[in-house]
Amino acid sequence: FIHNINILKDTAMLFDNISSIGWASFASFFLWFSFIFTEKKEILKTKIIYPLIFIPPLLFIYTQWAGFLTVDYIKKPWGWEIVWSESIWLYSYYLYYLLFMAIGLYLILNFGKKTKEPIKKKQARIIFIATLIPFILGTLTDMILPELLTYNMPLLGDVITLIWALGIVYAVAKYKLMVITPALAADNIISTMADSLILLDSQGNIASVNKAVLDLSGYGKDELKGKSIEIFFREKDFKSTLLDRAIKKEAVRNYELNFKTKTGDHIPVIFSSSTMMDEAGGMAGIVCIIKDIT
What we know:
By secondary structure, this protein is of the alpha+beta class.
């Protein structure tokens, strides 16, 4: 509405005040989003973080409505030009905006470099670029150029922010940003479950293990991949018996066995397994669950 030359000055001021709910809080919500996206759970658990993030925008929304940020509106060919105050409130807002956006961008960039998950790496790249472009352009058009140029130009920050919105929409549509898919849920359950889980291929060799297996056995993940299940269980004909039952789609329930660790120790466990089927109805692999009963 600020770009509409047909509205009255008081109306332009009213709509600018209402829109301040968005532009004054954008940096805070972006920083909050960055903490969530980059999985900074320990930071989000601290009680002080929420006042630090959300009190500043409330303060600047109040100062906008009180007339401490914008002091006048001048009619121009493109709409209403905002006349900013030269008070400490304006420069405090600039500092808050630049600081929060810079921290959020750094968190996302750093997360994208360190994460081992390809999808999250791509999501981080999209979000970083989609945020950096409007951040730079918006800062130039709404903060720097108005101070340097002798002629007036319209504020384009609200329009440029559409680049960020389109980037988020693309990340959601393309890579399921912040969407819990069955595969993602399964991966998280497997990685955090207390019991040991081993996925075997159709030959009875280890395809994948969760962290609990590594903790119980003392092996590294690379040491186990492709190895026979008999690295853990030395019972006679264990592998062939397990495969035979899997082919017949027979589950194994609560067998007491001895689990052999890397150091040669034997740990009593409860062993269960079931067959994974492919789309054609054939055996794709075997899921093994091991429960330490010591």
